[in-house]
Amino acid sequence: MSGFTLPARLFLACPSRALHRLRNSKLMLYCKMSSSSSSSSLTHSITLPSQPTEPVNVAAAAGVSSSDFRNAIDSSLFKNWLRNLESETGILADGTMTLKQVIIQGVDMFGERIGFLKFKADILDKESGHKVPGIVFARGPAVAVLILLESDDDETYAVLTEQVRVPTGKVVLELPAGMLDDDEGDFVGTAVREVEEEIGIKLKKEDMVDLTAFLDPSTGHRIFPSPGGCDEEMSVFLYRLQVEQAVFKMALAFCAMARGALRRRLHRHVPPRRGWVP
Asked: What are the domain boundaries of the chain?
């Protein structure tokens, strides 16, 4: 294989462990919006199709600037969340719940676009009058790729990357993954690009297998890693690659030299008959 490079922060591991580490209809949403602002408050009013007589108040928390507030309301992250509420399996679909208010609490910009959006939604159960948990960390769709490298002597490895994950307080071994950075929904293209950027392996789009396509249609063919607090929906792809044993040895030697062979186990051999991937 030409152009195969492994940086110091890449590891080869057992596919079963790799999976362990991984952790529709279209709807047209029409909103009537009005706004008001003062030196002390920023608010918007949204009317949703499911509750036309109950406008939703959208307000900015203290410290959120007017530009961040406007960017948040206009962002695809916020609009997609509203659209999901109104979808066939959405929270507001059967009329038993109502959205009263949304508080925009934080905005993180990635260049000219919103990368992360934090807000709190007040959604009430009409029968009980109780609020349902409504703190949202919005980051949008993402992709992950399980790359299986198969050598000519029947050894199989999965490619993992080592990432510093501040929210966990740990350095984590995980599948190559990344966020969609546009509104086009190009999951396959994003997966290919992320792999090349993170680990230097060039994948062919036509050889990518969408594992999440086999999920029940009610899921939207996506995995939700943490739906209790985050809107992230993930597509997981499989990519098989034949590599000569000599390349494996070179890659492992490079990893051992870069990290120190005694500091971490860099790979595990998994006989193909024990693999979980079809």
From this structure: 10-23+141-274, 32-138
